[in-house]
Amino acid sequence: MTILSNGHQWKFSEFLNNKNYSFDKQQILNTLSEKEIDDAYSSISKWDGYAPTPLISLNKLSKELNLKNIYYKDESKRFNLKSFKALGGAYAVEKVTKGNKDIVVATATAGNHGRSVAWGARRLGLKCKIFISEFVSDARGQAMADLGADVIKVKGNYEKSLIECIKQSTENNWQIVQDVAWRDYMQVPTYTMAGYTVMMKEITDQIHNEKMSHIILQAGVGGMAGAMIAGIAKYLNNIPSTIVVEPDSAACVLESIKTGKIEKIDIKKRV
Predict the structure, then answer these.
(1) What rounded mean pLDDT belongs to the chain?
(2) Residues 28, 30, 34, 35: is their CA dihedral positive or negative?
(3) To 10 degrees, what angle do helices 223-235 and 88-97 make?
């Protein structure tokens, strides 16, 4: 545990050095191509209200930890959504609907992705259905409702909300805009990930191509973290050490690295 001068504490419960894979730029860009990344930036940068979000220098923290620079990418300012996932879902909505105003979009979410999908649907004048588990707070559900979405709460965990989203979308011919992939459902999550790479484009412009030694990313499903890895392959000349951080109650990336295959984690509500 580390205790900072302001009294804040931080610690990690487990750390794993991923020795199963090395950074293969070409392999990464075969998964999320340079064209897909370029297309995302070209589209998103033309949206009304678009502006690069701040890259904040954490001077006091870097001094205390004896590091040259620590930067924080403040995504809370993106389109006033107060969400670090504002880019991906909205971009995927634009790509899959292709200007068709009659399409209804739907997604299952714990909050951040759904907020982007709801905002993207409102931006294009589309109806939107959001499925959340019973464990998602009322405040998060209301934030998506305030963006014009119909919010449906489902008994059970996130996976149950996703199953219900797929079921109702199939029955009603709604277009699912999800940030997680499964067999025969790969393109939409790819669009979502491409949207996230705009962050890395902005960061490289903001640091004027200064070399970064480490990049720390959040993971839930893992799409944002994976997209940023693709952004690193696309925009950076050096290869920084990348650290993925996730809650110990939902450490699916950690467990997947351990076994070398996709693992599911049962998330239980915590008081």
Answers:
(1) 91
(2) negative
(3) 90
Residues in the chain: 271
Do 191 and 95 touch, CB atoms closer than 8 A? yes
**Three-class SS of residue 97?**
helix
Window from 1-15, 44-58, 211-225, 253-267 with minimum mean pLDDT: 1-15
* pLDDT for res 186: 93
Q: Do the Cβ atoms of 177 and 117 come closer than 8 Å?
A: yes
Integer Cα distance of 146 and 210 in angstroms: 40
pLDDT confidence tier of residue 1, bands split at 50, 70 and 90: low
Long-range contacts of 1-6 (CB under 8 A, 24+ apart): 4/61, 4/64, 5/64
Domains of the chain are 17-80+193-259 (3.40.50.1100), 88-184 (3.40.50.1100)
Cα–Cα nearest to 242, from 87, 13, 17, 73: 17
Would the pLDDT of 16 be above 90?
no
The whole-number pLDDT of residue 271 equals: 37
Each residue of 43-56: b (16+ CB within 10 Å) or e? Answer: bbeeeeeeebbeee
CA distance 78 to 53: 6
Measured CA angle at 96 (ends 93, 97), to 5 deg: 80
